[in-house]
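Thread: Newbie trying to understand structure tokens

Hi all, I'm a second-year student working on a class project, and my supervisor (Dr. K.) asked me to get a predicted structure for one chain before our next meeting. I've only ever worked with sequences, so writing a 3D structure as a token string is new to me. If someone could post the tokens and maybe explain what I'm looking at, I'd be very grateful. Here's the chain:
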Amino acid sequence: MKKDLIMIIISVLLSLQSKAQNLSYGVHAGVDVHSYNSVDQVKVYDQKTNLGFVAGSDLKYTLHNNIIFASGFDITLNAGEFSSFSNYYREQKGVYTEFPQIKTKELCVEVPIAIGYNLRLSDKFLFIPSIGIYSRYAFTSIKDRVITNIGDGKTVSDEWKCLDGYVFGIHRIEGFKHFDTGFKIKAELIFAIHYSLSATYQRGFIEQNKQFGIKDQNMRICLGYYF
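---
Reply by user tm_fold:
Sure, no problem. This is what the structure looks like when written as tokens:
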């Protein structure tokens, strides 16, 4: 009876050890190049890319056939910029640029889920392409700049927070949404066992502001370390 119990314990420990060998975790940090993609190309124009940052953790589980399931946790700073025409006619002069500049900054938490494949290039190099989805929540916005055209060649420059919205007289901007989800494509090179270099493209599914019909898209370059 005791021998059987000992054998069961040993088998369980060996099984856990085997699974642990297929589980890897690490950390990463890098730059986030963010911009807005608008479905209303008539109203929104001059979208610019802005630099932010990303830092977080990685968790990977590798099956025996080299298929990888990946997840993790990220903290990101997303920054965007664009210009917008008005919705209406003013003094019968036609549509005009109501907001010559709208800049945004958000701090977010993000959780990705992806599936990939482990390609062993050599003893020291692994290449992992993957595709998946992510969910992101903007928990706060940072003050940035909005410029409003008030007519007669005059503009007003104000600070604002994109999650809160903006009002100046008859001019208004709806608050941006907190939540987003989208797809991601990632290519990662692991070298010298522990180090990684990755490039990721992400594109959101949800309009972050219906007034402008804009969605998030971003490109990331990260350096990482696996323990």
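A couple of things are worth pointing out once you decode it. The chain has one domain: 24-226. Residues 117 and 166 are 46 Å apart (CA to CA). Feel free to ask follow-ups in this thread.
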